[in-house]
Design goal:
By secondary structure, the chain is of the alpha/beta class. It is 32% helix and 18% strand. It has a single domain, classed as TIM Barrel (Alpha-Beta Barrel). Strands 1-2-3-4-5-6-7-8 form an eight-stranded parallel barrel. Helix 7 packs across helix 8. The two termini are 16 Å apart.
Length: 247
């Protein structure tokens, strides 16, 4: 499937290591250490989520790199210590420590996702200071959960730093379909129920058209499904790939 799609579009799931995907997606007898290899046969990318909760070991990053094909890309969710506890301030060496592990993925390292907490309201100075401190050799993307951030003036700040806006879809919350950098980034959390609803073919066909239009303006598009319940993410990601190939 992944060989049919333009290299510009990286479509996959937010994580692959879900116990409840056994049988639903992974063969019943397939050992967990081989799940990523199985996943990478159908998808060219994955979003690492466990890195949000704790910093994976050097060995883990090296194993993930070695277990995937040459064209595979990992988006990496940045530690909640940086985004939720420190809230982008007084970080010391936290960012450097995190990047020292993530960079072990080498050429398979994709965007670094900074998901800000829903309680964190807009503060341009904090964001500007943080953006100015980030090494520019990486792709940085921000998911803003408080509505105060989502405005044209905020998008201009991101553009000045070539930082990405994470477009998200979830029940009761909308985000403009905008690219603020040379790449676009989209997270689909479920349209009816957060993390646990399956997108319909009609919804995915509509998303495919919008994503291709957005893709005309950028070098790369990353799309991740976070509705892991019942392995809906796998089904939806494969369907979206087919629709994008036919737009």
């Amino acid at each position: 499937m992944k060989n049919d799609i333009s290299a510009k579009y990286h479509i996959g799931c937010s994580g692959w290591h879900y116990d409840h995907w056994r049988v639903l997606y992974y063969p019943e007898r397939l050992p967990k250490p081989r799940w990523l290899q199985f996943y990478a046969r159908q998808f060219s990318t994955v979003e690492l989520n466990n890195s949000f909760y704790h910093l994976p070991s050097e060995k883990a990053f090296a194993t993930w790199k070695e277990s995937t094909p040459n064209n595979f890309v990992f988006a990496v969710k940045v530690s909640r210590f940086i985004t939720h506890i420190k809230r982008l301030r007084n970080l010391g060496s936290a960012v450097e420590n995190f990047l020292s592990r993530a960079c072990l993925l080498q050429d398979k390292l994709g965007p670094l996702l900074y998901q800000l907490p829903p309680s964190m309201k807009r503060n341009d100075k904090i964001l500007e200071d943080f953006l100015s401190s980030l090494p520019q050799e990486y792709r940085h993307v921000f998911e803003f959960r408080h509505e105060s951030w989502l405005s044209d003036s905020l998008f201009q700040i991101l553009r000045r730093h070539n930082a990405g806006l994470c477009v998200f879809d979830m029940p009761g919350s909308t985000c403009p379909l905008v690219a603020t950098s040379d790449f676009a980034y989209i997270r689909l959390h479920g349209s009816a129920t957060l993390y646990s609803s399956c997108y319909s073919d009609k919804e995915l066909a509509q998303w495919a058209k919008k994503i291709v239009q957005l893709g005309e303006k950028v070098e790369a598009v990353y799309v991740y499904f976070n509705n892991d319940a019942e392995a809906f993410a796998v089904k939806n990601a494969l369907t979206l790939v087919k629709f994008i190939n036919t737009v």
